[in-house]
Structures are given as C-alpha cells and as structure tokens.
Amino acid sequence: MTPKDLEKLIHEVLTGSVSDGAISLDAEDIPQDVTVERPRNREHGDWATNIAMRLAKKAGMNPREFAQIIADRLASEAGIAQAEVAGPGFINVRLDAASAGELARTILEAGEDYGRNESQASKHVNLEYVSANPTGPIHLGGARWAAVGDSMARLLKAAGADVTREYYFNDHGAQIDRFARSLYARAKGQPAPEDGYGGQYIEDIAKQVIADSLAAGEPNPLDLSESEAVEAFRARGVELMFTEIKVKLKEFRSEFDVFFHEDSLHDSGAVDEAIRILRERGHIFEKDGALWLRTTDFGDDKDRVLVKSDGDAAYFAGDLAYYLDKRARGADKAVYLLGADHHGYIGRMMAMCAAFGDVPHENLEILIGQMVNLVRSGKPVRMSKRAGTIVTLDDLLDAVGVDAARYSLTRASMDQNLDIDLDLLSQNTNDNPVYYVQYAHARTVNVARNAEEHGVTRSGDFDPAALSHPADGQLLGVLAQYPTVVAQAAEFLEPHRVARYLETLAGAYHTWYAQCRVTPRADEEVDAGHVARRWLNDAVAQVLRNGLDLLGVSAPERM
Q1: Burial class, 310, CB count within 10 angstroms (exposed 0-12 / middle 13-18 / buried 19+)
Q2: pLDDT for res 208
Q3: Residues 6 or more apart whose Cβ sits within 8 Å of residue 214
Q4: What does R_g of the chain's alpha carbons equal in angstroms?
Q5: CA dihedral 438, 439, 440, 443 (to 10 degrees)
Q6: Backbone angles phi, psi at 339, to 5 degrees
C-alpha cells in the first residue's frame, strides 16, 4: 500500500462515515486532499493524518472523538494492522507487513515512472537559466544555474508539465562592444581596454578569428579599418563564444530547447510592439525627452525608462518584449533563474507582468541564486588560468567531474551561498555526499549480482509479508515518500529536496544492508525472506536511479 493508496482509503472511510451519519458533515465539506505523513517517531506507526483536526469543528465534534470514529473503521480495513488516536486528534496508522511490502512490487512494476505524477499537468513552463553574456567562459554562478535549471526542468517534466528550456543570449549592447574591442586590442598585441575583458581566452579567440578569416579567403581583420576590424571581431568572436558555451553546457548535461538572441527583439520590432501595447493600456508617459513605464502603479519603487532621451532603447525595454514573446509562444508561466546581483530586478519585472494584465508569481516567477565559491585545503580558489579573473565551469569539471559538480550544485537551496570543498568531493568516503548516494546504488547492483549467483531471483513468488524486520519497514517507509518529494520539489522549484531525500534513502539502505540478508548463509536454503529482500533491494536501486536522473547525475554500477 502506497501513501496515495492509504490517502484514498482514508477518504473512502471518511465518506462512508458521513454517508451513514456517524459524522455530521455535508458531502462538499469532505476534502479531496487527505494527506498522510511519516511520523517523526516510528514507534507511533508508519503514517499519520491530521484529517480529524481539520474537519472536527465543521462536524461539531471534539477532534479526538472524530478521529476515533475514523481510526476504528480504518483498523478493520485490509492491509491495516493498527489505527490509533494520538495527541489532540492525530490518527496513527500501521500497515501490516504484506501491505507495506507490496510497495516493492509497485516500484519495480513502475520502473522509471515511479515518482512521476500529474501535479503540473496542463502547464507550459518557460524556464530560462544561465543566460550569461557571450563575452567569456561560463563562471561558477552560471554553472550553478545550469545544474539547478536543468534539474528543475527534469522535475517539472516528471510532474507532467510541458517545459521549454531556454537560454537568452545577451548579444545586444555595450558589453558586446567591449568584448569586440578587447579582441581587436589583443590581436594587435595591445592590452585590453580599461573596461574590456582579459584572460587567455580573449587571445585564443582573437587568433581564431584571424585564422578563420584567412582560411575563408577573406582579408585579415587587422588589415581593415579599425571600425571594420572591430565589427569582424564582433561577428566572428561572438559566434565562437556562443559555440563554446553551447558545447560546455552539453558536456555538463544541460541542453536547451531554445537559444534566444536579444538582437532579434530589436531587429523584429518586438520592442516597439511591447511599448505600443503598454501605451494602449495607459501605462506609458514621457518625461525629460524619454519614454517611461509607470511601474510604481504596480508596486515598483520607481518608474522605469524604456527609451532614453537619445532615442536608444533601455535594457528594460528588451525585457518587456522578451516576456511577451515567451507568453506568445504558449508559456503559462515564465520562470527566470538570475544571479545574486539581480535582486533589484524583481520589482520592475513583477510590475511589468502586472502592467500587461498578467498575475505576478503565477505567470512570472523570478528565482535569485546566491554565489558559489570553490575551496581547496581550506582556502578559496580565486582565479582561472584561462579566464584570468574568475573561476569557470571548466575549472570545476577538471577538478571533480560532471557528477560531483552537478550534485554539489543542486543539493543546497539556491538562496544560500555555496562553498564547494574540492578536497571533500575528491574523496571516496561517506563524507562525500555524491559518493555516498552513488555508492548505495553500486551496492544494490552488487547485492543483486551476488543474489543471482546464489539462486535468489525475482522470477519466483514474491511474499511481501516476509518483509517483517523493522529495518524492512523503515526502508519501505523511505521509499514510499519518494513520489511526494518529487511532487513537492516540482511545485516549489527546489531540486535540493531530491538530493537530500536520496541521502536519506542511501542511509536507510546502508542500515538495512547491515541488518538484513538477501543471500542465504552457506548452510541455509533460499527462503521467502531472501526473495522478498531481493525485490526490496532492487526497488531501492530503481528509486536511486530515478532520483539521480532528476539531478542529471549518473548511477554507477561499480565503484
């Protein structure tokens, strides 16, 4: 019996109690969401519900009296070993061994689908993340958004949502100009402009631009006028940087459905169209020769310039058009993952959402992620050899690999600063969280392999009642929580819930492994207990694989 099965049973008992008059409630007062949770103290039972405390007042009853009616009826149901009232009106439920053990069969029959749900079905979410300027390699902050954003997309899909993974290339404006001038200066053997970009990668790209031009039979950009040369370095240099970013993200298992170019918003007239719509809605005004959006009408701390007095569009104008474009492409909700320096961005974006007639936090959500620091030997790693001033995704991958990098970047809440200890992630010990979880999976595979050699297979009869050891029950209880964890992680856009769950499951499995045998001892025959625990072992393997896949982390079979 899964938690969902138990919730359905409690709902049926509650409905029956109302129908026969044992509880005085109108049918519409019976909620559909009868939830059960794992008690903190396992001695209290396998599951607990607070439904009596939620409904007792409406029924004109004492919560404990209400709870006792439900508990007495639950206790007579198949699969329920015990149902008791506790505290102010909780109902603690203990499943019998067979009912609890059936979960292993449920998991293995569902396979990769175990944990998937329809909680976000019918929703189309546009999830934008990384979106770093194409002026340099992906830094650690971008790496965090890549890992977290991709995991969010996997979670939302597992919850039934239609998800578009999107990368916004900021290829319009002053930063690209500085990038082009930096390439030009380095190609001439000059230092980068004061506001330009440094690092070995600038020299590498500048050389490649020249090599590509010559290979194509075009003039050496350095033989052109300065303006023509800068434009040549801009066009080809940005393209090379784009390509490298895409390659690195793919290597990091973070792929995108859409690469959206900011330039296209200005070239297509989308910015002008967005301003026209807001003007028609009465939210645009002119002041000091500039065009403004009255965002203070929607909670922003000040109004925002859209078109400057010199006629150039402000950066925020592009944001308007980009949001509208996402909505026009079918997104019910646009989710932006932004860096720690974008806190001031939230107010104006939510005001913009409202100005278009949409609902902030329903049609638009902005998540701010905090900074990431690398630590080695207790000291911060401060600089990349290639980028010159920052630590990059490449530096992290060179140090610990994709699995450890992705796992470490997703196991903490985005709103927390994150220190990644490279020494710890390089250790094959239980102190290393990714090793701890991956080793649990490798152990399940090894146990299954040894079991097969000893004749313990899943081809025979499975007796779930044989899973009667307390450690069996504890492990089954953790396995049963996985679908709820996935649904909640998708709802709150918090992949770290999955990582922390996997660590809990790994701990429960290691404890179970120390107390329960899957293979018989030398003088024993294979019995129902060995077979049932083979099923349970393999169920753990399946859930570990499913959970690691949601984080974009592999589940190795040997370590």
Answers
A1: exposed
A2: 95
A3: 220
A4: 29
A5: 130
A6: -80, 170
